[in-house]
Write a structure and sequence with these properties.
Layout (H helix, E strand, L loop, with lengths): L7 E2 L2 E2 L4 E6 L2 H13 L7 E4 L1 H14 L9 H13 L3 E6 L3 H13 L2 E7 L4 E3 L11
Antiparallel strand pairs: 1-2, 3-5, 3-6, 4-5, 6-7
Helix pairs in contact: 2-3
């Protein structure tokens, strides 16, 4: 995924085959990166967003979103991503198109203090449940 041209549907972020995770700090984000690299994910499969980058991306998408974007969950979800970014959350997006990869990423999200995580499938967005205690999923 190239964050300068993020994948969209109806003008709204929808990275099919990817898992999006939010972390309260860059340290927690880096712990997830390290865990994923240990599990043999390539660095090229990982895209990092600072809070400022996520806010800018969401703002641009909200300006350009099609009316059709309101029919799905994507528009609500990017607004939640923006709120997390406003709270200082960093984001990690992982290319995980296979079920086994997606489950590995979900395990990392649960183990590394992700405050929110979703896996984007072709037809649905799956919330990753069972995040670390004290963290509230979106």
């Amino acid at each position: 995924m190239d964050k300068t041209h993020p994948p969209e549907t109806f003008g709204v972020f929808k990275p099919v085959g990817h898992t999006v995770m939010a972390f309260r700090s860059a340290i927690d984000q880096q712990a997830a990166v390290n865990a994923l690299l240990d599990q043999k994910f390539s660095d090229s499969a990982l895209v990092r967003y600072s809070p400022e980058e996520m806010k800018a991306q969401v703002d641009a998408e909200l300006e350009n979103a099609s009316a059709f974007a309101a029919f799905g969950y994507e528009l609500d979800l990017i607004k939640k991503h923006r709120a997390l970014a406003e709270d200082g959350c960093s984001f990690l997006i992982v290319h995980a198109p296979e079920d086994a990869q997606a489950e590995s990423v979900a395990s990392v999200a649960r183990a590394t203090k992700a405050v929110a995580a979703q896996h984007y499938g072709r037809f649905m967005i799956e919330e990753i449940s069972g995040l670390a205690s004290g963290n509230t999923p979106v």
